[in-house]
Design a protein that fits this description.
homodimer, alpha/beta, Nucleotidyltransferase, domain 5, 2 domains, five-stranded mixed β-sheet, 12 helices, 13 strands
């Protein structure tokens, strides 16, 4: 078994998040041989997180009954602004990292080639490669979670822009003068339709006296609320929860149409934790709202929901690692 | 003279607008040898307009002391949704054209290869080639006029999307629930910052009792107002005109930042009739507003104003024609 594996080209794909690290081991066909998960613990600082990433990769390798010597390269998707040329995480607010030399540190630790990309770029690459067989020439990934990010495949390849900053669709303003965003501006897509925005809106409505099963279950401050709680509340007939989710989905459809009217891709894919938890509640509204806002010539644009979940990020990171192992 | 010209590769570039047709004759270095202009008269129907385009090209050729036999190909930028593969103008509201076979008709008339493109795509190509020497890998053109359109250069080439519908940046919603747009939706960039939107806002303010030199000069309905009248009014201290133009420029900066946050280009170029007439009044506001809305990683994006004016479109069309003449 180990001998057969040694002849295969194996890589590790890592998805680094603010709360957890996910690592997977992949062969050249992008089959996942095994996975491991660790908490991130960003409060312990950069060096400690790098160590945890290394351990997570080692755990995933062990999970597959392999040895580290059989791994040829590591790809990693990291949150925030990433310079893929230098391998630096330029700015990642939820890790509190500024100009963090992630590729260099991980290379030193694991003695392997390392490629770093923005997490949403990596996830878009994963979705494009595995769910769409790499065929669409132009694809846009929209990931709804705590924040909102995106990725672009242009002419069959990941598009990163002039300085690796492309894909920040969460900071597209769609409601001038709208709610304040964490970035400092107002009315950003992320300030209207991310999990954070939805939670804030619900808290405010409940504080304002509106009724919701969520308040009965979690208390008025909705402490510890998860996307799954929202889904259950809607299924139990919670009108406030349904309204807030419908409004967010409607806005999401407008943002999607904005991207389509500008870029006219073949496919737009919706993913991320919020989408995963609330697909049935959000996807039909998003699709209707988007199509209502499509300009002439986009009637054939396909809108799909990714079902890769957390795997999108590690697959995309593995695709990047494959480029290094070639 | 004629003999020397015969050895050169000469092409015609045409910009077809709702009110006028502009044609230019270019050599392979994109030097303009001469121009001609005709009114469009779209009310006379498709066939008549095609005839007028042909005559305009012939006039431009005559203006250069050349003969039609010396022209090797024609490129044409047309308003609305254009299918560059079939050469069809799929939909052009201000010409009242639906599925109009422009390339075929013009080819039949002039007995020359013809390439049709969306007018803003052609203008972006013209700006990229002539004002920027074709060097930026990624450039976005924003054209402010009666409507608002755009074009994208990606990896050094014109990006048209999956079905030639890319670049409709005027129908990016940036104010959900905002003013009604001609496309049927609300809060589009075009409904907030085009010449049409600015004129409507001024008319409404004056009808509501606000004072303006424009009303004194043109009457309360502002009949026949041009962008130049606006500039003059602002220069004469018209507060209402300045406020409306400042608001439009502010919104334009937000739209520009939206595009930059998504696409992270090297350069964004502002052009179009409104920009040409009101550069001093609008450009500084646009640039400030855009930079205030740039997300991390875009600090090196260059914002420039095109000074090609009407020539951007005919140059871009000539670049396309050159591809056919090669």
């Amino acid at each position: 078994m180990a001998e057969a594996n040694q002849k295969r080209r194996l890589v590790a794909g890592v998805d680094l998040g603010g709360t957890k690290i996910l690592a997977g081991i992949f062969d050249a066909q992008m089959t996942c041989l095994g996975r491991a998960k660790l908490t991130t613990k960003p409060e312990r600082g950069f060096k400690e997180v790098v160590g945890r990433i290394g351990r997570c990769v080692e755990e995933a390798v062990d999970e597959c009954d392999l040895e580290m010597s059989q791994i040829q390269a590591v790809g990693i998707g990291a949150p925030g602004a990433v310079d893929a040329d230098t391998g630096e995480v330029v700015f990642a607010p939820n890790l509190d990292w500024h100009e963090a030399p992630l590729a260099e540190a991980l290379r030193g630790l694991l003695k392997l080639p390392v490629r770093v990309e923005n997490d949403c770029n990596a996830a878009t690459l994963g979705v494009h490669r595995v769910e769409f067989g790499g065929t669409p020439r132009n694809l846009i990934g929209i990931f709804l979670g705590t924040g909102i990010g995106g990725g672009f495949i242009v002419n069959g390849e990941l598009y990163c822009g002039a300085s690796h900053a492309a894909g920040e669709i969460g900071h597209m303003v769609i409601d001038v003068g709208g709610p304040k965003c964490a970035c400092g501006n107002s009315g950003c897509f992320e300030a209207l339709a991310s999990r954070t925005a939805i939670f804030k809106k619900l808290q405010k409505a409940i504080a304002g006296g509106q009724e919701s099963l969520l308040a009965d279950q979690l208390g008025a401050d909705l402490k510890g609320m998860r996307s799954g709680d929202l889904r259950k509340a809607i299924q139990q007939g919670d009108k406030l929860a349904r309204q807030v989710i419908t409004d967010a989905a409607d806005v999401c459809g407008i943002a999607l149409a904005n991207l389509v009217n500008c870029c006219n891709p073949e496919v737009v894919v919706l993913g991320g934790g919020l989408m995963e938890a609330l697909e049935n509640e959000m996807a039909p509204v998003i699709i209707k709202s988007a199509r209502d806002h499509f300009f002439t010539g986009n009637q054939n644009v396909k809108i799909a929901v990714s079902h890769l979940g957390d795997d999108a990020g590690i697959i995309g990171a593995a695709v990047l690692a494959c480029g290094l192992a070639a």
